[in-house]
Amino acid sequence: MKVLADKKTEICPGPDPAPHAPARVAVPPGAVDTHAHIVGDTFVPERSYTPPPASTEDYLHMLDTTGMTYGVLVQVSVHGTDNSLLVEALRAHPGRLRGVAVTPPDISDRALAELKDAGVTGLRLNTVTGVASASTSSTASSRCARNWAGTCSS
């Protein structure tokens, strides 16, 4: 469902149009940015804000400029369980990016395998926005049994 900026618009900065290298630290070779979001133009209706676009290209430019080698993209809450933008970015840059997806509790093993094949290595269980449900603990246990990251805390 495509819903644009007709929902709450909070001040939420977009990507820095002119990122720069760190001035006081040397970024070591192989450095990893461990949490970033890319944002498209399709949002879930039940969101608290509408962020500006943040493309994969913007993110890669920031990584290059700051000296980061790798990045981990985390599914942004405003896209809900539609991981298509995340998967597209991961498939386009498999040697550089990994991802953390948001899935419904009843996701199939096949769909999980497709996410894993795309480069998803963890799942985000959002208990604040209600994306997680009463089945969250069983979902987490199931994912831990499959060696997925990000779901093994209680």
Please tag this protein with its features:
TIM Barrel; 4-stranded parallel beta sheet; alpha/beta; disordered N terminus; 4 helices; 4 strands; 154 residues; globular
List the helices and strands and how they pair.
Layout: E1 32-36, H1 56-66, E2 70-74, H2 84-92, E3 97-101, H3 109-118, E4 120-123, H4 136-145
Parallel strand pairs: 1-2, 2-3, 3-4
Quick synopsis:
With 154 residues, the chain is an alpha/beta fold. The protein contains four helices and four strands.
Outline the structure in words:
By secondary structure, the protein is α/β, with parallel strands linked by helices. The chain has one domain: Alpha-Beta Barrel (TIM Barrel), CATH 3.20.20.140. 26% of the residues lie in helices and 12% in strands. It contains four helices and four strands, in the order βαβαβαβα. It has a four-stranded parallel beta sheet with strand order 1-2-3-4. The radius of gyration is 16 Å and the shape is globular. The chain starts with 31 loop residues before the first strand and ends in a 9-residue tail after the last helix.
